[in-house]
Amino acid sequence: MVGVEVLEDADTLAERAADLIGDALREKPSLSVLVATGHTPMATYAELARRDLDASALTAVQLDEYLGLGEDDPRSLWGWMRRSFVEPLGVKQVVRLGEVPDPDEGCRRFEAQVAALGGIDLAVLGLGPNGHLGFNEPPCGPGARTRVVTLTPASLASNAAYWGDLPVPTRALTAGMDVILGAGRVILLVSGVHKRDILARALREPPTPEVPASWLQDANTTVLADRAACGVTRGPAFP
Ligand code: F6R
């Protein structure tokens, strides 16, 4: 079941997302949250940090990570998640991807840790330009497990915008679609005109491996999208 809320712009989107996440946290202080990095959720995390929330019992679960980067590498997604979400919100428990040298062992360990939490309560996700969620690159079925992936050219190109001249690593670890779709609730944040076509495909086409985000139609999903991402500048909102 997908609910779509159309917000005026990226700022209102961040406020609404912070409202929903804050409500979920007040309802269940020990919330387990799958946390996306990327540009889109940054305003939401900043807004959350400005609010008077107690996230000390929350567990933040890492969504994806590049392979082969040191902990202090500026491209590390764990570093990005720590700076934008974990530290500003005062989160004390984290489940990380890629902590152990053997990536396959790391994936197994991650899945066991998520299972020990009782699964994910809330997944806060962004939408890749090719429809990916985390680094579940197309084609990708709904049962895909947590695993090592090779990034597609579309993802390499979009991620290149994050770190200036530094090359984008080509391989990564991602929480599986099974982890994402098993979440109690998914909030998908979508902002900007460049996401318009892929958002329309994700919501309107029957679920397909070619657009991994389309599997969210079968999950408890709330899409928060700004008008630019919906292709509506005024008048009635999408869809
Ligand atoms: C990041 C991640 C990615 C991004 C997606 C959108 O941890 O998992 O799936 O959410 O690529 O990125 P932005 O928000 O930068 O457009």
Features:
239 residues, alpha/beta, Rossmann fold, 7-stranded parallel beta sheet, 8 helices, binds fructose -6-phosphate
What would your notes on this structure say?
- The protein has 239 residues and is an alpha/beta fold.
- It has one domain: 3-Layer(aba) Sandwich (Rossmann fold).
- 33% of the residues lie in helices and 19% in strands.
- The protein has 8 helices and 10 strands.
- It has a 7-stranded parallel sheet, sandwiched between helices. A 3-stranded antiparallel sheet has the order 4-8-7, covered by helices on one side.
- Strand 2, helix 2 (42-50) and strand 3 form a beta-alpha-beta unit.
- Helix 1 crosses helix 2 (42-50).
- Bound molecules: fructose -6-phosphate (F6R).
- The site of fructose -6-phosphate (F6R) has 14 residues, from loops.
Can you give the mean pLDDT? 94
Low-confidence stretches: none
Could you give the distance between the termini?
14 Å
Shape-level CATH architecture: 3-Layer(aba) Sandwich
- The sequence of SSEs as H and E is EHEHEEHEHEEHEHEHEH
| Broad structural category | alpha/beta
What share of the residues does DSSP label as strand, in percent?
Answer: 15-25%
The percent of residues in helical segments reads 25-40%
User: What Rg is obtained from the alpha carbons, in whole angstroms?
Assistant: 17 Å
Ligand roster:
fructose -6-phosphate
Task: Work out the helix count.
Answer: 8
CATH topology: Rossmann fold
